[in-house]
Amino acid sequence: MCGACTGLLNGEAVRGCLTFAVQCDGAEVETIEGLSDSGAVADLQRAFQERNALQCGYCTPGILISARELLADGNVPSRATIREHLSGHYCRCTGYQAIVDAIEAVARARISPPPRAGEEASKASRKGQVSARSEQASPLHRPAGGPPPPLRGGG
Ligand code: FES
Fold this sequence. Notes:
Bound molecules: FE2/S2 (inorganic) cluster
Structural class: mainly alpha
Order of helices and strands: EEEHHHHHH
Oligomer: single chain
CATH class of the domain at 6-111: Mainly Alpha
Radius of gyration: 27 Å
Number of strands: 3
């Protein structure tokens, strides 16, 4: 058993080579193609690509499905737990280190996603508006190049 044929049967990861067709009768069957098209594993796919967690790609569909299953509860599993969960998968190419790195990174990102580029610019813009308003409200504020504020008191 290499794990490459892993799919989801009623939401649970199963090996295709160990599943009889009759077991699928009336069941919901999902493959990596369906999960990929729906975007359900997009962050995992991106992390695998960014971290070189695949080489020939033979094992990748099955590992992505198992990783999705592992991360479904929203927790960040330990590296040992990730390795144990992948124990039914055989990867001839990567040595698993990058695969574990990618899955761990996705688990961490899912609980505290990094800000998207647009959000960061929007926050900076809002902060600038607040800052500009508070400067205008200040009695000492003067526009750049404008006259100095009048002196008050015994000047
Ligand atoms: S990337 Fe080749 S078997 Fe895993």
